[in-house]
Specification:
Layout (H helix, E strand, L loop, with lengths): L5 H6 L6 H7 L7 E3 L5 E3 L12 E7 L9 H14 L4 E5 L4 H5 L7 E2 L2 E4 L1 H5 L5 H21 L6 E6 L3 E3 L9 E3 L10 E3 L1 E3 L4 H8 L3 H10 L1 E5 L4 E3 L6 H7 L7 E5 L4 E4 L14 H10 L2 E9 H16 L5 E6 L1 H7 L12 H21 L4 E6 L6 H13 L4 E4 L1 H4 L5 H11 L15 H12 L4 E4 L1 H12 L7 E4 L19 E10 L4 E6 L18 E2 L5 E2 L3
Parallel strand pairs: 3-16, 3-17, 4-15, 4-16, 8-11, 17-18, 18-19, 20-22, 21-23
Antiparallel strand pairs: 1-2, 2-14, 5-6, 6-14, 7-12, 9-10, 12-13, 14-15, 22-23, 24-25
Helix pairs in contact: 3-16, 6-7, 6-9, 8-9, 12-13, 13-14
């Protein structure tokens, strides 16, 4: 059987005017700034103060394969399904990064008949938010180097600069560079490097700010370097926050688009969950909740990454309490955790599937035991899944008294998620009292250990000598009460991407930390995680093209 590609389905859809989408949500027209016919930005003062009276649903997943397990697809399909059963719903998502679009995924706007549109725009530049974030990040880098060039009155130690330039592309060549070469007027030579834009602290700051004033205060606090006597230099010391905020004045406003079925989608921000905090902006979530009875939002990768940060950082900072959590699982990912190679994931293998089920159960344990959430498993059906495989997973959920629903939104749109929608509504009526993985008053090491042991099930957490030194420095500087943003592989509960399933009795090594004083958290780097990814052997970019009529091809 042949299937239409995602982009073919998207290009065959007749879109509504974005003004009609906004009007159906009762968003005042004077709060809307249109970007063409099908995109708009919404003014910040359109957020209602009583947004918390409405329901919020989080979509997360089990430990994924490299292709992802369809969280965005389920999120969009659930939003459409809720509309079909008469509920006023909206969706809050992150914006795709160009890195994965041209690297592995080739697009990240959902899939099949559960997509956010216009998908080409969403995947490629969109409303320019990421470019504005990159420009603000790089303006700060330029001001820092200019200060050094112009006499360095702040006594910045060029061997202790922690601020990097950024680019929204996977480009390993830029991870470690030397710049400032040439004549004396060309700058001061020093080691430097690039992060991908989604790993920039500016991205985190924008996604966690509730206003332009808060944005400026967070930008001002960001640490860029240290002096010769090891004192922090901030963006505020360089008088950079005002100009940076000017570059971000439009980017801070949430973007509005639509699904194939006309459900409103608020897309804003895009921090990765394996190297950043992995959630769309708090402003987009609040905006969606302001006008809709049910808001479905997504956190990147598995419950051990995006969901943990969603709870411990985003919800904690904004006094949010999710009403339900949807845990996305796929047959292929469970077979992967059962020991099957990627090339064989589309073949029926009940033995491997059963062997991979502990990964599903571990994620349920994280959500229900650590964070005390009401959970339903959405089995995201793929065309290659067999009836026997689906039956095995459903029986396993029944045996453990776990709520589940077979989702077919990829092939059927909202119609394929009606059962999931009905069960989510029921789940939202149950009491939910969010608990966190650690206390903010704990020491930084204790907080990291609590995440590693309680969420990941590590037996031991090791801190390198450099990390021990940096932790002491962070605590001496008054940052001991900040939450933790763990940078870890998405493929395993451990820091080893090859340790699949539901491992126990393993050791995690924290090899570095970064103080993100503006974002308001401490980044802890584990394993081989990098803040500037590289392209794979066969990048998705090789399959992306445009014809003479301007029609884009190859975005999945």
């Amino acid at each position: 059987m042949s299937y239409l590609s995602d982009i073919q389905i998207a290009q065959g859809t007749k879109l509504k005017s974005i003004l009609e989408i906004a009007k159906n949500s009762n968003i005042p027209e004077d709060k809307i700034e249109v970007y063409g016919k099908y995109k708009a930005k919404i003014a910040l003062d359109a957020i209602h103060p009583d947004y918390k009276k409405h329901k919020m649903i989080l979509v997360t997943a089990i430990s994924p394969t490299s292709a992802g397990e369809g969280k965005t697809t389920i999120t969009i399909g659930l939003g459409d399904a809720l509309r079909q059963i008469g509920k006023k719903s909206a969706i809050a998502l992150r914006e795709p990064s160009l890195g994965p679009v041209f690297g592995i995924k080739g697009g990240a706007a959902g899939g099949g008949y559960a997509q956010a549109l216009p998908m080409e725009d969403l995947n490629l530049h969109f409303t320019g938010d990421f470019h504005a974030i990159g420009a603000a990040n790089n303006l700060l880098a330029a001001l820092l180097d200019n200060h050094i060039q112009q006499g360095n009155s702040l006594q910045i130690d060029t061997r202790n600069i922690v601020w990097k330039r950024c680019l929204d592309m996977n480009d390993r060549q830029l991870r470690h560079i030397v710049d400032g070469l040439g004549k004396k007027t060309d700058g001061v030579p020093r080691e430097d490097g690039f992060d991908i834009t989604v790993a920039s602290e500016v991205m985190a700051v924008l996604c966690l700010s509730n206003s332009i004033d808060e944005l400026k205060q967070r930008l001002k606090r960001m640490i860029v370097a240290y002096t010769f006597d090891n004192q922090p230099i901030t963006a505020g010391d360089l008088k950079a926050e005002g100009a940076m905020a000017v570059l971000l004045k439009d980017a801070i406003q949430p973007n509005l688009i639509q699904t194939i079925e006309g459900t409103p989608v608020f897309v804003h921000g895009g921090p990765f969950a394996n190297i950043a905090h992995g959630c769309n902006s708090i402003l987009a979530t609040k905006m969606a909740m302001s006008y809709h009875d049910y808001t479905i939002t997504e956190a990147g990768f598995g419950s051990d990454l995006g969901a943990e940060k969603f709870f411990d950082i985003k919800c904690r900072n904004n006094d949010l309490n999710p009403d339900a959590v949807v845990l996305v699982a796929t047959i292929r990912a469970l077979k992967k955790h059962g020991g099957i190679a990627n090339v064989d994931l589309n073949k029926e293998n009940l033995k491997a599937l059963e062997a991979g089920l502990p990964n599903l159960f571990r994620h349920i344990e994280v959500l229900t035991k650590v964070f005390k959430q009401n959970v339903i498993v959405a089995i995201n059906k793929f065309p290659t899944d067999t009836a026997a495989e689906i039956s095995l997973v459903e029986k396993a959920c029944l045996d453990k008294q776990i709520r589940f629903s077979l989702s077919e939104v990829w092939g059927k749109g909202g119609q394929g998620g009606l059962d999931l929608a009905e069960q989510v509504v029921e789940l939202c009526n149950e009491k939910s009292n969010l608990e966190f993985a650690y206390d903010l008053n704990d020491s930084l090491k204790t907080k990291m250990e609590n995440i590693c042991k309680n969420v990941y099930h590590a037996e031991k957490v090791t801190f390198t000598k450099i990390v021990e030194k940096k932790i002491k420095q962070a605590e001496d500087l008054g940052f001991s009460n900040l939450p933790i943003c763990m940078a870890k592989t998405q493929y395993s509960f451990s820091d080893n991407p090859n340790l699949l399933g539901a491992p126990d009795n393993f050791e995690i090594t924290v090899r570095d930390i970064r103080i993100s004083a503006g974002a308001g958290f401490i980044v802890a780097l584990t394993g081989d995680i990098m803040t500037m990814p590289g392209l794979p052997k066969k990048p998705a970019a090789e399959n992306i093209d445009i014809d003479e009529n301007g029609v884009i091809q190859g975005l999945m």
